[in-house]
Amino acid sequence: MQDPAISQRARDIAAKVEAFVREVVVPYEKDPRRDHHGAPLDELVVEMREKARAAGVLTPHILDDGSHLTQRETAVVLIRSGLSPLGPLACNTNAPDEGNMYLLNHVGSTDLKARFLAPMVAGTARSAFFMTEPADWGGAGSDPSMMKTTCVRDGNHWVVNGRKAFITGYHGAKIGIVMAKADEGACMFLVDLPDPAITIDTIPNTIDNSMPGGHATLTLTDLRIPADQMLGEAGEGFKYAQVRLSPARLSHCMRWLGACIRAHEIATDYACRRQAFGKALIDHEGVGFMLAENRIDLQQAELMIDWCASVLDSGSLGTVESSMAKVAVSEALMRIADRCVQVMGGTGVTDDTIVEQVFREIRAFRIYDGPTEVHKWSLAKTIKREWKDTQG
Predict the structure, then answer these.
(1) Whether 191 contacts 136, CB under 8 Å
(2) How does pLDDT run across 76-87, given as a tens digit for each residue?
(3) In the chain, which ranges are E strands?
(4) The Acyl-CoA oxidase/dehydrogenase middle domain covers which part of the protein (predicted)?
(5) In sequence order, what are the residues at sequence separation of 6 or more whose Cβ sits closer than 8 angstroms to the Cβ of residue 269?
(6) 238-386, which class in CATH?
(7) Using one digit for the tens of pLDDT, what is the confidence trace for 296-321?
(8) Of 43, 64, 128, 211, which is the most exposed, with the fewest CB atoms less than 10 Å away?
């Protein structure tokens, strides 16, 4: 029985996205247009997006009138876009762009939407979100209150100085959302990229490589930003970050669930075809049980995503719920990816399939948008606060 909360329109969009990813995007997984670290080059992204545009599946979660699908409807679409590591890039549902589009749609002025949001929705501009700072600088990581990057008003401009780290997709991005600290509190600004006041210190090699532009460490030196490019009000930056981060965490869960569904399909096909000790691998309990456990974890992850999405659709910020979903889903997907590698043995650790990449990407996902341990710590604080409230 179909869930009435998911419109037929959303189901149709999801079906088109899945067909596009499986039929058009999957063949690109062997395309050699990659950087030294294996990340897709923008040339490859542009080509895939042109095909997505022609197929009517570019930025599919944002409708022609600018409205968004509900979070529950977005889930059925983004899960399908994640069936290939390249799918979110092709369909323009990838991080950090998807989260940045969500934030701008909710907080940006009409002028800022026209200038910065429109090219992102059109898939012609990638973006970056400048929040995390280098550990060796003592800056903000999981604790945003440690932010050291500053912004000072100078006439009709703000001047920003500081450093940022793990800025996903910076190299090649055209739009940036910069967080900095003023006397009023945290602020957010929109900037055109590149800017000579922003220099790349390094782009480290990381365990994951699905994101074009890598995860850069940057220095911002006297970056001058027109005052009308501030997002919202001065001092409200942390509030706006929560507007972005809760659905963005959930969107990560959606996309990587799609990747693990595909990895499970590949491992299942391998186990059903591969023979050992006189029978198919899947008929050995040690292998068959791993695939059974995968099926259970996949179903539980989907249910957790749907539950958290329904909370966000109710109008709640969903910070507690998104923390729970981030922990539960990322840990479940890690188990799934690990089992897929194990089921496939030696083949599972090669790049003959996407299984080994999915394993690496999910391992990084357990850290990105807040490590599991930080979310558990935050949840424990909530539990303690709730207990205190019951004590009168």
Answers:
(1) no
(2) 999 999 999 999
(3) 127-130, 150-154, 157-168, 175-182, 185-192, 198-202, 215-226, 275-276, 279-280
(4) 128-205
(5) none
(6) mainly alpha
(7) 999 999 999 999 999 999 999 899 99
(8) 64
